Amino acid sequence: MLSTWSFGAVANRAGGPLLMAGTGALDAAIAAAAAVENDPAVDSVGIGGLPDSSGRVSVDASVMLAPDRCGSVCAVRGYANPAAIARRVMDRTVHIMLAGDGAEQFAAAQGFTRHPTELLTPQAQSEFNRYLVGRAAAPAPSRLGILPPMNVEERYAEASSGKYPVAPAEPVSQTPASKEPMHDTVCILARDRAGVLAGVCTTSGLGFKLAGRVGDSPIIGHGLYVDAEIGGVSATGNGELIMSICGSFLATEFMRQGRTPAEALLAVLERIRAKHTIVDAHQVALIAVRADGQWASASLRPGFSHCITDDAGTRLEPSPNVMLR
Ligand code: ASP
User: Fold this and answer.
1) 247 CB near ligand 1 (under 6 Å)
2) Residue 324 placed within a domain
3) Is the CB of 282 inside a 6 Å radius of any atom of ligand 1?
4) Could you tell me if residue 325 is inside a domain?
5) Which of 148, 178, 186, 218 could link 303 by a cystine bridge, Cβ 3.0 to 4.6 Å?
6) Percentages of the chain per state (helix, strand, coil), in multiples of 5
7) 58: CATH
8) What global pTM score does this model have?
């Protein structure tokens, strides 16, 4: 099981033992996702997610086993576990993606329970209040200016206050370039004992995004792609950069052409760099697992850690493949 960011350790601790015990890849990945979605200390996924610019939290998620086995939901309010809802879309409808009200009605009909506080925690509310003060004082953000950068790993360490003592093996770089904007999706790729590969990508999206904005995470081929014969890829970071080049699909295709997972991810980051004006607040990170189990992670900038669980245990490690040092 390979997942993104420090809170990937929350995911792997929930899903890794299931995988080791013989649970199927998708069941284990959904359980792993739910652990992060339900953790209020993670302010970019599920309960505790930062709201949009109207003050309401919305969540997006996708799941995928193969091109003919995938599902997603986007712009969903009030439901903490969008990955599980996305799986129902895959299993019980002829569609791939449901959005907004329709997705919420589907979730209710499938027996999911609406969260009493609409996922907005007091901590996320107070971050929103700080954002409102900053917004009033600052000029309107440009398309490239995005949001005030904040370091996701610092935010998470503070919010979880040692609940998950999973510090990376090396300190995460504190250079200005490593400061993260308010985003960070949990992406999970799982390969089970039978060799089945599954991917899950779940997020509350960019903090304080415009209401209605949907990023890469729930869109098949952008935030997540799995082709059982080749491998799987999932992405986190500035969704607009990832969506502009179909990041996860592109990396899968690079693997299909024979590149290693690390080469494929770095080629995607190179494509992003070539097609965009990259600013300090930009970050993109990707994880890949090939059908034979070889895996890699890579990021545009320092500050990204992956969490890997295999027969040697669970390790939270800074990604060794960083494009801009
Ligand atoms: N990619 C997500 C989005 O743009 C956010 C993230 O991964 O940080 O919504």
Assistant:
1) no
2) no
3) no
4) no
5) 178
6) 30, 20, 45
7) 3.60.20.30
8) 0.89
